[in-house]
Design brief:
The protein is α+β, with helices and mostly antiparallel strands. 22% of the residues lie in helices and 22% in strands. It has one domain: Alpha-Beta Plaits (2-Layer Sandwich). It has a 3-stranded antiparallel sheet. Strands 2-3 form a two-stranded antiparallel ribbon. A hairpin with a 5-residue loop joins β2 and β3. The chain binds iron/sulfur cluster (SF4). The site of iron/sulfur cluster has 14 residues, from α1.
């Protein structure tokens, strides 16, 4: 059972390659050959959310942003009011 995912976005124009993100959340951020961050995944599972939020806080360039991901597909049919 999974909740809504968190979507992570990386502004590569802001990234200065400090590497704080990859240290905080190595499952989500990696480095390209120039040492700038690249996303390994965009939809962050709940298990990695704390790590990703830590990365957001540590990024000195505020290059990482989070937004709600897709809702899990459900077929709830509740009576409309
Ligand atoms: S912490 Fe921020 S500036 Fe540093 S590599 Fe990660 S995204 Fe880029």
């Amino acid at each position: 059972m999974t909740g809504p995912l968190t979507r992570v976005q990386l502004d590569t124009g802001r990234c200065q390659g400090h590497g704080q993100c990859a240290m905080a959340a190595p499952d989500v951020f990696a480095f390209d050959e120039q040492g700038f961050a690249v996303l390994q995944i965009e939809d962050v599972p709940a298990a990695l959310e704390v790590a990703v939020r830590t990365a957001v806080l540590r990024c000195p360039e505020r290059a990482i942003s989070l937004m709600p991901g897709d809702e899990p597909k459900t077929t709830t049919s509740h009576n409309s009011v």
